[in-house]
Amino acid sequence: MAKSHVTTTINGDPVEFLCESQQTLLDVLRDELHLTGSKEGCASGDCGACSVTMDGRLVCSCLVLGVEVEGRSIETIEGMADGENLHPLQQKFLEHAALQCGICTPGILIAAKSLLEKNPDPTETEIRYWLAGNLCRYTGYDKRVRAVQYAAPEMRGA
Ligand code: FES
Ligand code: FES
Predict the structure, then answer these.
(1) From the alpha carbon of 136, which atom of ligand 2 is closest?
(2) Is residue 8 within a helix (H) or strand (E), and if so which, with residue range?
(3) Cβ atoms of 72 and 25 closer than 8 Å
(4) pLDDT tens figures, 5-18
(5) 15 lines ligand 1 (CB under 6 A)
(6) pLDDT number for residue 31
(7) Burial class of residue 11, CB neighbours in 10 A (0-12, 13-18, 19+)
(8) Is the full-model pTM beyond 0.90?
(9) What is the pLDDT of residue 4?
(10) How far is it, in rounded angstroms, from Cα 101 to Cα 79?
(11) Residues of the chain with pLDDT > 90: what percent?
(12) Residue 77 in contact with residue 110, Cβ under 8 Å?
């Protein structure tokens, strides 16, 4: 089958790749570009483990086709830290042990960053609703909510 040539931006860098029409963005990230931080939990839009942003909008990369990202700007977990410096959310997740096996963690971090960029001072309820689409098989929900609460003032510079 003929492959499509796609030109896009990933974590601020121009990227080109070839993909088949049925390949999802998650397939492309993991299998073609070797950006394996985004995880596949369900491949059906239910778990949030594959979360990335596309033009600033939180999406499940398992529900986006690779060909759909032509001309778009994608951000993945690989772009979250600034070199050796962890993003405040990553730092707080570490400090508060807000992860166990780590499969859900990249998607939660991307989703939490998306929340705090839109709503820098969310209530606990708003955090819980926003992250409701990010499932964790170890049910580590309270710690991740606390980590987001601790990261929020740091991101606001408070
Ligand atoms: S792998 Fe995409 S939502 Fe579960
Ligand atoms: S820490 Fe493993 S699925 Fe959430």
Answers:
(1) 4
(2) strand 4-10
(3) no
(4) 999 999 999 999 99
(5) no
(6) 97
(7) middle
(8) yes
(9) 97
(10) 21
(11) 94
(12) yes
